[in-house]
Every structure is written in C-alpha cells, then in structure tokens.
Amino acid sequence: MKDLVKKDLKYIWHPCSQMKDYEELPPIVIEKGEGCYLYDTNGKEYLDCISSWWTSTLGHSNKRINEAIKSQIDNIEHVIFANFTNKPAIELAEKLVSITPERLTKVYFSDNGSSAVEIALKMSFHYHQQRGHKNKKRFLAILDAYHGETLGALSVGDLDLYSKIYKPLLLDTIRSEGPDCYRCKYNKNREECSAECFEHIENIVKNKHDEICSIIIEPMVQGAAGMKIYSPIYLKKLRELCDKYNIHLIADEIAMGFGRTGKMFACEHAGISPDLMCLSKGLTAGYMPMSVVMTSEDIYNEFYGDYSELRAFLHSHTYAGNAMASAIALENLKIFEEDNILEKSKEKGKLIKKLTLEKAKDNPFIGEVRSIGMITAIELVKNKETKESFNWKDRVGYSIYKIALEKGLLLRPLGNVLYFIPPHTIEEKDIKIMINKCFESISEFFYNYR
Ligand SMILES: *Cc1c(COP(=O)(O)O)cnc(C)c1O
C-alpha cells in the first residue's frame, strides 16, 4: 500500500480535497468492493455509509450488473450519438420516460451531473429566447443550493466554499431565501408547516418574472448543504408559481433520484412534474459516469424545425448515450423493479432513523436528526438551545470522519452534518454496525472536546 500511496500523491490531485490534509491522512487504496463494504490493499474493510458519494445504490460489485457489463462489452462499447444510436440507450430512454413524472417525454444524454445542469439551463434560456421572451435571461435559485462545479452550475449554486472565489466569473443568478426547517424563522414544526417561507420566492417572482427563464431546485432535500429536508408543499407551490409566470421548473434530482427519498424521484412527494429534470449519480448504480436531462414535449418542439431555421440545440458531449453506461443503467432499473428495492429500502430507512434517534437522544451536541427515505442526517451544534453551529474551521465533522475511518466506517460528513445514505441493499446487521460505530466516533470526539 505504501508504494501506491506514494505514487498517488506524486501524480494525483484529488477532488474536493486540501491536498495538504493527505500528509496526515493519506488516500486509502481500495482494491475490492462487495455489497456495502470496501476493502483496501491491506485487507481492512470499510462500511460505505455514503454509497461512495451517493452513487452506489445497489452496493459494490453487484453480480447482475457485472454480468450485464460482460454481455454488453462483446457487442458495442460506444458509438457516436449524432445520427447513430444503440439498443441499450434506446431501451433506457423508453424506460426513463415511463418511470419519471408525466410531463417528461424526451431524454437528452450526457456524462456527469454538472453537465446535465448546464444543459437544462441552456435549454431553458434558449427556449425563451426563441419564443421571443428576450428579457427572460436569468435563473432563480435558493440559498444553500448545490448544482455542481462547472461555471454555469456554480452560478446557480450557493455554497460559498465552492463558489466564492469564482464570483467574478459567474452568471447573475437571482437568489431567494429557501426553506430552512431546522432554523425555521416562522417557528413552525414540521407537522404544522405549510411552507410559509415560500413567500420570499413568491415575492421575488412577482416582481421579476419577466427576467426569469427558470427556477432550479433540489427537490425535497438540499444534499450538499447538509441534507436539509423540506416540505413537499414548497414544491407544490413552486410548480404553481412557475406555471403562472411562464417559468420553467428545473428539478435537480441528481442526488435524490433513484429511491433515495423513499420515492423513485423526489418530485413524487409533491406529485409534481418539472419541465426539466436532471439525473445522474444513482442512474448507473455508481458504475459509470452518465447523466440525462429529461424534458417536456413543449420544450423539445421549440427546437424542432428545418435546419435553416437555426433552432436546433447543438450542445454535445462526446460520450453522450454511451452504450456501456446505458446497459448498466438499464440493468440497474430492472433490479430495482424485480427485487422490489424501493419497498424494501423503506423499512431499512425507518430502522436507520429509529436507531439514530435512540442514540442521539441525550447527546448535548446533536441539534437535530432529520430523515427521509434512506437518508438520515445528524446536525452537530455547539449549543442545542441557540442552535449555534460549530465554526467550520474547527472541522468537527472532519475529525469524526477520521475517527470513524479507524473503525472501518466511511462517513464523509458535510461540514458539521453527519449523514447516512448507504446502498439500498444494506442489511440489518450492517445498519446496526454503521450506527454503533458512528456514535462511538461521535462520543470519542466529544470526550476529548470537553
Ligand atoms: C453531485 C451533484 C451534482 C453534480 O454532479 P457531478 O457529476 O458531480 O458533476 C449536481 N447537483 C446535485 C444535486 C448533486 O448532488
């Protein structure tokens, strides 16, 4: 392992990392994965509580998907997607149209989440330009949003950590306050809430709707912001508002799609259809990069015409419609249906929530446990009464992450928020291990903290 690590650090610049941290905590070389477990080159095992950045919905090295890859590879790995197509991509598109909300009838392929967000933004802007809504040039997004790292995606995102330095390069996005349920200004508990906070976005849209081409949102859960869960009522109101003012609603389901919230797509909680929907992460069960933008007949038709009319959407990515990734995604969706993954994961999600709540009960540093579907998050706070956060520079989450790693748990907190988003296939015994070790790590950290 040592030689590999040395070479890694010599040649590789890792994502989302301060590389200096690797002096103290070098990268762990994973040799093998199976189900919820990863194994490093020394044979040490790690329980993957976060599905390797929210992708691995069915666990690592899934037998059926492995077989699907083997049978696809002997046919075709990849083929140009302009004027050519391939069977897995066609079947996947048909399947996606059948399982996503009804307004979505067309599938535009790409290869990562940020690209999907760029595509959705460009399509919406382009649509309105062609329709003659020349002033509809701006996007609206809410506070704490995360939509990816490319410049367009960063522009609609709102996490300073990722975007602050690039502000001079970014689009002039209109920003509204969004739901902030743990620190709700209206002092509502979740049962009483009727999304009173919606008035912010409503007022902005009333005043500026002729400048706005679309509103982009992560439905139900703001993932990167710390798994901030909000009411479906907010989404319902948002759909109505967008309809009223001729604004597209872009649902960024990149993280929450494919069952994470207990429904196949998070929009289903509110019973709404967006105009554009971005999918990636769980689409290929963590096997290969792929993303899609699903869109409506109305948007598609706006781009349909004779070549000389110059109304085509000429955006492209080389690996669009990749046959291998499509075959994997297709098998993933088959497994979801045949193995009843969604139904089974509901029970598991409930168990994770229950056990977490039990353990968290008397901990003075746990401000909130919040949960939806397969996601349970623990927000650590300095003061439970005032809900004061730890300073991000204290790196509380990161310290607990390191302790947990020693115990064979891959946690990767978001700032001061620890969370579980394990593969849907996790077993009960591993759920217990996950929660026990996580709370041992929390206790150890705070024992020294006081
Ligand atoms: C991960 C994520 C993205 C970006 O996807 P990449 O593949 O990392 O570019 C966009 N939006 C949301 C909600 C995400 O969770």
Automatic annotation (TrEMBL):
<dbReference type="InterPro" id="IPR049704">
    <property type="entry name" value="Aminotrans_3_PPA_site"/>
</dbReference>
<comment type="similarity">
    <text>Belongs to the class-III pyridoxal-phosphate-dependent aminotransferase family. BioA subfamily.</text>
</comment>
<keyword id="KW-0663">Pyridoxal phosphate</keyword>
<feature type="binding site">
    <location>
        <position position="412"/>
    </location>
    <ligand>
        <name>substrate</name>
    </ligand>
</feature>
<keyword id="KW-0032">Aminotransferase</keyword>
<feature type="binding site">
    <location>
        <begin position="113"/>
        <end position="114"/>
    </location>
    <ligand>
        <name>pyridoxal 5'-phosphate</name>
    </ligand>
</feature>
<keyword id="KW-0949">S-adenosyl-L-methionine</keyword>
<dbReference type="GO" id="GO:0005737">
    <property type="term" value="C:cytoplasm"/>
</dbReference>
<feature type="binding site">
    <location>
        <position position="53"/>
    </location>
    <ligand>
        <name>substrate</name>
    </ligand>
</feature>
<comment type="function">
    <text>Catalyzes the transfer of the alpha-amino group from S-adenosyl-L-methionine (SAM) to 7-keto-8-aminopelargonic acid (KAPA) to form 7,8-diaminopelargonic acid (DAPA). It is the only aminotransferase known to utilize SAM as an amino donor.</text>
</comment>
<feature type="binding site">
    <location>
        <position position="316"/>
    </location>
    <ligand>
        <name>substrate</name>
    </ligand>
</feature>
<protein>
    <recommendedName>
        <fullName>Adenosylmethionine-8-amino-7-oxononanoate aminotransferase</fullName>
        <ecNumber>2.6.1.62</ecNumber>
    </recommendedName>
</protein>
<comment type="pathway">
    <text>Cofactor biosynthesis; biotin biosynthesis; 7,8-diaminononanoate from 8-amino-7-oxononanoate (SAM route): step 1/1.</text>
</comment>
<keyword id="KW-0808">Transferase</keyword>
<feature type="binding site">
    <location>
        <position position="252"/>
    </location>
    <ligand>
        <name>pyridoxal 5'-phosphate</name>
    </ligand>
</feature>
<dbReference type="InterPro" id="IPR005815">
    <property type="entry name" value="BioA"/>
</dbReference>
<dbReference type="GO" id="GO:0009102">
    <property type="term" value="P:biotin biosynthetic process"/>
</dbReference>
<comment type="subunit">
    <text>Homodimer.</text>
</comment>
<feature type="site" description="Participates in the substrate recognition with KAPA and in a stacking interaction with the adenine ring of SAM">
    <location>
        <position position="16"/>
    </location>
</feature>
<feature type="binding site">
    <location>
        <begin position="317"/>
        <end position="318"/>
    </location>
    <ligand>
        <name>pyridoxal 5'-phosphate</name>
    </ligand>
</feature>
<dbReference type="InterPro" id="IPR005814">
    <property type="entry name" value="Aminotrans_3"/>
</dbReference>
<keyword id="KW-0963">Cytoplasm</keyword>
<keyword id="KW-0093">Biotin biosynthesis</keyword>
<dbReference type="InterPro" id="IPR015421">
    <property type="entry name" value="PyrdxlP-dep_Trfase_major"/>
</dbReference>
<feature type="binding site">
    <location>
        <position position="281"/>
    </location>
    <ligand>
        <name>substrate</name>
    </ligand>
</feature>
<dbReference type="InterPro" id="IPR015424">
    <property type="entry name" value="PyrdxlP-dep_Trfase"/>
</dbReference>
<dbReference type="GO" id="GO:0004015">
    <property type="term" value="F:adenosylmethionine-8-amino-7-oxononanoate transaminase activity"/>
</dbReference>
<feature type="binding site">
    <location>
        <position position="146"/>
    </location>
    <ligand>
        <name>substrate</name>
    </ligand>
</feature>
<dbReference type="GO" id="GO:0030170">
    <property type="term" value="F:pyridoxal phosphate binding"/>
</dbReference>
<dbReference type="InterPro" id="IPR015422">
    <property type="entry name" value="PyrdxlP-dep_Trfase_small"/>
</dbReference>
<dbReference type="Pfam" id="PF00202">
    <property type="entry name" value="Aminotran_3"/>
</dbReference>
<feature type="modified residue" description="N6-(pyridoxal phosphate)lysine">
    <location>
        <position position="281"/>
    </location>
</feature>
